[in-house]
Design a protein that fits this description.
Radius of gyration of chain B: 27 Å
Distance between the termini of chain A: 35 Å
CATH class of one domain in chain A: Alpha Beta
CATH class of the largest domain in chain B: Alpha Beta
Strand order of the largest sheet of chain B: 11-10-9-12-13
Structural class of chain A: alpha/beta
Oligomer: heterodimer
Keywords (chain A): Iron, Iron-sulfur, Metal-binding
Radius of gyration of chain A: 21 Å
CATH architecture of one domain in chain A: 3-Layer(aba) Sandwich
Largest interface: A-B, 54 and 61 residues
Distance between the termini of chain B: 55 Å
Strand order of the largest sheet of chain A: 2-1-3-4
Number of helices of chain B: 19
CATH topology of the largest domain in chain B: Rossmann fold
Pfam families (chain A): HGD-D
Largest sheet of chain A: 4 strands, parallel
Number of helices of chain A: 18
Shape of chain A: globular
Number of strands of chain B: 17
Helix content of chain B: 40-55%
Number of domains of chain B: 4
Strand content of chain B: 15-25%
Organism (chain A): Candidatus Eubacterium avistercoris
Family (chain A): Belongs to the FldB/FldC dehydratase alpha/beta subunit family.
Structural class of chain B: alpha/beta
Shape of chain B: globular
GO molecular function, one term (chain A): iron-sulfur cluster binding
CATH architecture of the largest domain in chain B: 3-Layer(aba) Sandwich
Chain lengths: ~425, ~575
């Protein structure tokens, strides 16, 4: 870890004057990490997760090497369509997390704030803006975002598209479902597709999209089966790997590689030994770098994380015969859309279904949609007698999480679970 | 009576149902309840509404899906007051036929829901009549009689009534109100399709920042360029979406702009006033608008020397300077501000007079500045500390272009031109991070006096990073460093680096240029100065008594008054 910090400090030092060199160093660091995850990873980590880690790093590395074949996206963009144009999907959230892995988030956040961007904005967005505007990541060929879930999406992408002159499509997703709303989004998907056809001189293949959605359906089925089968089983992971799951459930869902990953995961759990510790269901993002949480949950013998509800934000089967309608519905009916009550109920149901001993909700700095509902979630879980803890901090800016505060709360909660 | 929040709310629908509906403006003084029921990191407006809603007699509240904080406020209020009418209107972000028909359907559903709740009925003819009446009355509205001194545009998120009153008092005309609540409700729906055309007109107004095509806003502003003197950009703490447009206007448009951030509590009034007045002062100077000849009180006598006093009533210290008509500093004093700023000002006045060997009646003019400037009874005029610092700095060293002032409870960066006029400024007065108060707190934790911080820190050996910017977090970080037996000098050096880092990012927001001058109490700390100089790559200009620059500037304003 010290090596990554020193390496990151060098990048930060040279970045203001030598963007290209900084980018080469980032790519070099990711290349080494790709090698490490391919050959030297801890054998305690389940094989499927090692595969995912290796694949995800390779994916970001390719996106940085081939900006002309890359789209900047958010976590909820319908990447299935972009895959049909052979584009790499680099999400603002994922790229920021990698940069934070190099301990660079502070300098990039400061860069964005000194431009005038609000300090209270989500750190993922600030880091990505800082990285793009200071020129250390190459500009993509296309950008696409959705309006749903998070206020920052539309504004961050508009800012980036304007500043770096990137063709950008923004999907407006209604907050609740209606047949008219579904058509409204389908129309927009058509518009985005024709924009992509013009930009990349490639006709859109609807059949290919249907096949992608078919793989997505299978992947999600394997994932749910895995979660059901993992009750009472030992399946160690780390906070970072838990975040990598978003690569599988969102950014690369529908690819053959991700289908392979979920299938391997499901097969692997069949022969997993029994687990006698406590299992925690996580809500929202996690601060993967946080030392106390790492100590308890990374390859934990006593405590393991089941998953975060973000990975299960839409689990209905997609209608592959009407792929655009299916994607439209998927976005409108996302768990994060609509009232918070719906989300709280579902979180409670999932925690019960997967036999969680407790639920931890993480309020990420700048995330109004999740912080604002923290108390509603608490009330819902309390009514159902599910032990619950809320932690405040930052998913990636180390300056906004305080170990002392997290440690006391977490340890008290774990003591309570063991009573 | 119903409340509403957003300018896209179809208030005329409710009026057509004979229901009064008003835009809600909370007046919470603290967020104790809201912090518990929601979270402290939520938009202050949402917290304010939650804090005060229980005390009002609204029968309900109409929301739009305007932002995440509002979506959650709706969820929380609905749970807390199940008997009231809360409605979430799903507002599209695009304006096209699809979006308009979607919005029309939403509005129709809303009218039905309210009809169910209230037993009233909605008729489209009534909607037409109300819209017609409103359009008529907006035509009759008269333009202001007095010629305004300046014309500014208002943009950003929901400024309170006070901000507009303040501008009116300063005789400033608001050319346009592009805030998320500024809308002259002037629609003319088509009588063949009243609701459809009304919905479209409502959706098709000048967009707010949550809409997709917000670039129209810039075109709108450009349309005023020939008349526009500057823009006041208002944002609310934890409402982030307007900062993007502020960034754009500031960095890409050549229009003077000031950012005013508030948390909707009445406690912000002083902060708003300082920023607005300083901005208006700088605009007037750059527009060459002469100030009115002041009332000098007593008649001037040319044969006897003239003395003026500048007094800077800050939150931590009260400073005073006496100048003679040759701009010579005769005396200056720096005292701690006590519980009552007027008493401290009186003491500073007496002390400085005594030092100069003068009597109260020898002073021809007294100008006040600083946070307490309006509550000094013996001052004849007040000027903001921004303008005074600029004036004082330029007087002491005409090469200075960028001023960094770190005082007890706030810090500011001021850009001035070769004439000493303010061209830009930013302030941090919301939290203790990066101020003298932060250092005082840390000194206490380290059991050392504030005066010792500088000299001790210069002995540092190990380079420690204090990662937390927040003073509360930083304090516990310092405690754990003490527990690790780290050297005091190294810890203090780390703290100084944190302060300097914060100061540099403040400076960066005003496009800083050499030479730099540092003012305020923290400029006496050699440790902070050393780290800053290293970060900036050049020597700072620091006056022997860095705390009196504001008072000196005020005194210079006094001399100028006497010459006019």
């Amino acid at each position: 870890m010290q090596a990554a910090k020193t390496y990151g400090n060098i990048i930060k030092k040279i970045a203001p004057e030598h963007n290209r060199a900084a980018l080469s160093m980032i790519k070099g660091g990711l290349f080494l990490e790709k090698f490490r995850t391919g050959h030297l990873m801890d054998k305690q980590i389940p094989k499927a997760l090692r595969y995912l880690n290796h694949y995800a790093i390779g994916n970001v590395l390719e996106a940085l090497k081939h900006p002309e074949k890359t789209a900047w996206v958010n976590l909820f963009t319908p990447v299935e369509i972009l895959q049909c144009f052979d584009l790499y999907c680099l999400s603002a959230e994922a790229m920021s997390s990698y940069l934070s892995g190099f301990y660079m988030e502070d300098a990039l956040i400061d860069h964005a704030e000194s431009e005038g961007i609000a300090p209270t904005l989500c750190s993922y967005h600030k880091t990505f803006i800082g990285a793009a505007d200071s020129g250390i990541i190459p500009k993509a060929a296309f950008a696409a975002t959705t309006s749903m879930v998070c206020d920052a999406n539309v504004n961050t992408f508009r800012h980036l598209a304007h500043k770096h002159r990137i063709p950008c499509y923004m999907l407006d997703i209604p907050d609740s479902y209606s047949p008219e709303g579904e058509m409204y989004v389908v129309e927009q998907l058509h518009e985005m597709i024709s924009m992509l056809e013009d930009l990349f001189h490639q006709p859109f293949d609807l059949q290919r999209l249907s096949e992608t959605l078919e793989r997505e359906n299978q992947s999600k089925q394997y994932f749910v089966n895995f979660l059901d089968a993992s009750v009472g089983k030992d399946y160690p992971s780390t906070l970072t790997l838990q975040m990598f799951m978003l690569f599988a459930t969102h950014l690369n869902i529908g690819t053959p590689e991700i289908l392979f990953f979920f299938r391997s995961m499901y097969e692997e759990i069949q022969s997993a030994p029994a687990f006698h510790g406590k299992k925690i269901f996580w809500v929202h993002l996690n601060p993967y770098y946080q030392e106390t949480l790492q100590r308890y949950f990374n390859l934990g013998k006593d405590y393991q994380l089941i998953t975060t509800e973000m990975n299960l934000d839409y689990m209905d089967t997609l209608d592959v015969s009407r792929p655009l309608h299916a994607l439209s519905k998927k976005m409108i009916c996302n768990l994060y859309n609509g009232s918070f009550e719906r989300k709280a109920e579902l979180a409670a149901n999932l925690a019960k279904r997967f036999h969680a001993d407790g639920v931890i909700n993480f309020c990420h700095w700048g995330c109004k949609q999740s912080s604002g509902g923290a108390m509603l979630l608490k009330e819902t879980l309390r009514d159902q007698n599910i032990p619950f803890l809320t932690l405040d901090g930052d998913g990636m800016d180390r300056r906004n999480s305080h170990d002392g505060q997290i440690k006391t709360r977490l340890e008290a909660f774990l003591e309570l679970l063991n009573q | 009576m119903l409340g509403y929040i957003c300018k896209y709310t179809p208030v005329e629908i409710f009026e057509a149902m004979d229901t009064e509906i008003v835009r809600i403006e909370p007046s919470a003084v603290s967020f104790t309840q809201a912090d518990t029921l929601m979270h402290s990191n939520i938009c202050s407006f949402a917290k304010g509404v939650l804090e005060t809603f229980g005390e009002t007699d609204y029968e309900g509240l109409v929301f739009t899906t305007c932002c995440d904080s509002m979506r959650r406020l709706y969820d929380v209020l609905k749970r807390r007051f199940p008997e009231k009418f809360f409605y979430m209107l799903d507002l599209p972000r695009k304006v096209n036929e699809f979006a308009a028909s979607l919005y029309e359907k939403q509005i129709r559903d809303m009218a039905m829901a309210y009809a169910d709740f209230s037993g009233k009925t909605f008729h489209e003819e009534k909607l037409l009549e109300i819209c017609r009446r409103k359009a008529e009355s907006s035509r009759l509205r008269q333009s202001p009689a007095k010629e305004p001194s300046l014309r500014i545009g208002l943009a950003g998120a929901r400024p309170g009534r006070e901000l507009k009153n303040m501008l009116e008092d300063l005789n400033v005309e608001i050319l346009f109100d592009l805030t998320c609540t500024g809308l002259a409700r002037n629609f003319s729906p088509d009588s063949t399709q009243p609701l459809g055309s009304y919905s479209y007109a409502l959706l098709n107004q000048i967009p707010c920042m949550r809409m997709m095509k917000a670039s129209n806003r810039i075109k709108f502003i450009d349309g005023f360029r020939d008349r526009l003197d500057g823009i006041i950009y208002h944002t609310i703490k934890f409402c982030d979406i307007y900062s993007y447009e502020y960034e754009y206007l500031k960095n890409e448009k050549d229009i003077p702009i000031v950012l005013v951030e508030t948390d909707t509590t009445p406690q912000c009034q002083g902060q708003i006033r300082t920023r607005i007045e300083a901005f208006i002062e700088s605009l007037k100077i750059s527009r060459g608008i002469a100030r009115q000849k002041p009332d000098t009180g007593t008649s001037r006598q040319e044969d006897r020397p003239m003395y003026v006093l500048g007094i800077d009533s800050g939150s931590t210290s009260t400073n005073a300077v006496i100048l003679d008509n040759n701009k010579k500093i005769l005396a200056s004093s720096v005292i701690r501000t006590g519980a009552k700023s007027a008493d401290s000002a009186q003491r500073a006045l007496e002390l400085t007079l005594e030092q100069a060997g003068l009597k109260r009646e020898d002073l021809s003019r007294i100008i006040s500045t600083g946070y307490g400037r309006v509550s000094i009874p013996f001052a004849q005029r007040n000027v903001t500390e921004i303008s005074c610092h600029a004036r004082g700095a330029h007087f002491l060293n005409p090469d200075v272009r960028t001023i960094l002032d770190i005082g007890g409870q706030d810090s500011k960066a001021i850009r001035i031109n070769d004439k000493g006029e303010v061209t830009d400024f930013v302030m941090n007065d919301k939290c203790a991070a990066g101020t003298g108060r932060f250092l005082e707190m840390m000194a206490r934790t380290l059991e050392i006096s504030t005066e010792e911080l500088g000299p001790v820190s210069l002995q540092w050996k190990e380079d420690i990073d204090i990662s937390s910017m927040c003073s509360v977090f930083a304090e516990s970080e310092v405690i754990s460093l003490i527990a690790q037996n780290k050297e005091k000098a190294d810890i203090i050096h780390g703290l100084h680096k944190a302060i300097a880092g914060k100061a540099v990012s403040l400076l960066k927001r005003v496009s800083p240029e050499s030479r730099y001058m540092m003012t305020g109490g923290v400029a006496k700390n050699a440790g902070v100065v050393a780290v800053l100089e290293e970060k900036l790559g050049e020597k700072l200009f620091i006056y022997q008594e860095p705390e009196i620059i504001g008072a000196l500037g005020a005194a210079l304003y006094g001399l100028e008054d006497m010459k006019n």
